[in-house]
Amino acid sequence: MIAFTDVRRPIRLNYSTLQMRKVRVAMACAAGLLLAGSSAGLASTTSAWKVDAAGGWNTPDNWSAAIPAAAGDEADLTFDLTAARIVTIDTAVSLGTLKIGDSGPTAFAYTLARSGSFTLTMDNGAAHAVIEESATSAGDTISAPVTLNSDLDVYSLATGKTLEISSTIAANNHAISIGTATATNLGTVRIDASTPFSGTPTITVNSGILSLNTRTGSVTSLVVNSGASVTAGSFVISTSGALTLNGSFSSSFTTGTSGMTVGSGVLYMPIGAVPGALRN
To answer: How high is the pLDDT of residue 260?
Structure first.
């Protein structure tokens, strides 16, 4: 017969040992929460278009890393091209940042189009989403419809070039800034859809030119800061909105009850076009 002896040694823990264990447990929990937060957070993928060819967004071989398609991701359409290329959104795409523009010494245009009913959703959580045209760009076009789930900063770093968004921006009442305090819009951002916006956004033009071509824009409010300008065929500011003008604005327009404030800027309007209220 084999006998087993149950030997139980008492574990003695003094107060300092218990405190150290509590600290270690707390640190482990905090680290776990931090890792969980980072995995659930935004900006999880940055990937660049890597082929000198037209192609579909949802083709892995077209990208330097994983396909960027989730909120917070960054997509860089900046590959050096030898001819104008069309990149087609053929899957659901959400991005925190889109950088677009040929990086080569002889630049050719990118066009971001769509297949079927797919759209480009700009979603960077609580942070601003960004559409940036690179300094070396030849002038690029986004023809896919754009939906905003975050406020949007959009600008061109290419002096004298145009970043064209040729479809409606579904703003969902998010703010749109043309240029920022740290990124000067050196070119023109042109929104060229027959209805440029849905979900009336608040627009601030900090630098460069916002062009609505010959179309009608309807926004909650529009702020044009010093040195910036807006041109539009006609413009509607919602009932409770206002136009604040420290740059230049050229359009026929209708304002709401809050009217229009003209600071140090210049207002151009056709003869007979009188806003509801004009303040200086």
So the answer is: 55
CA-CA-CA-CA dihedral for 190, 194, 198, 201, to nearest 10: 30
Q: What is the pTM of this model?
A: 0.79
44-55 tens-digit pLDDT: 799 999 999 999
Q: How far is residue 96's CA from residue 9's CA, in Å, rounded to a whole number?
A: 58
